Amino acid sequence: MMQATPIPATPAEPYAYVKEPLVQVEQPTVEVPEPEPRFLHELSSVDRLFINKRLRVKSVLFLRGKKNRFYVRTPEQSLVYTIEEENSWWVGYFCYGLRPLQLHVRDQTGKEVMRINRPYACTSRVLPCHLQRIQVFSPPGTSIGSIEQIWTAVRPEYVVKREDGEEIFWIRGPRVTISCFRDIKFHIYKADGAAVGSTCKRWQGLLHAMFLAPVTDRFGVAFERDLSVEEKALLLAATLLLDYMYYDV
Fold it and tell me: Are strands 143-150 and 133-137 parallel, antiparallel or unpaired?
């Protein structure tokens, strides 16, 4: 008889599977860029600004220089910017409204959102070859434009330019810039001649003119609402320049 082939015994332990080591694949880290801080966004929805100027009397009395402080508000009296003047301690006593200076514009949180640089220059009727010119930076260190004085025999004129030199606004003042019993307006025009707004030096009464004019003053600027925030900032800087040139005593 043929013998049957014996059936092999089942191993006590099942075959162990070979496990490959797990390889951890590092996922690439995607860096989400932080949103760039917005500057001058407070000007996006306004069409006029009211400016109150206050002389820092303590600085004058203690020989720390003649320096102004400005408060920029909306028609609803909401504070938009606080502007601090910086200059050498002696220039305010000798140069008066022509003094070289820097203006630091800060928002409600105290962050500097704009800086205005004004070097020393004469008026057009004194030295026509060295006229007024200020540069505007926002944020500080990044130029957004300038305001330059144009030589004229009677009516004051200024041109507002972008950082690339493109002319965007012209500012023309009255023949008589003395504020006496009336408001003084400087009209603002686009490069094509269309009216876009005005700046105004406000008459506050005879008592103010006789006693308080060197300490406090009020003026404002109005413009079209759809202008860019940089254009509105340049017109604000031009208003400050006009105040220093004609009404800072």
Answer: antiparallel
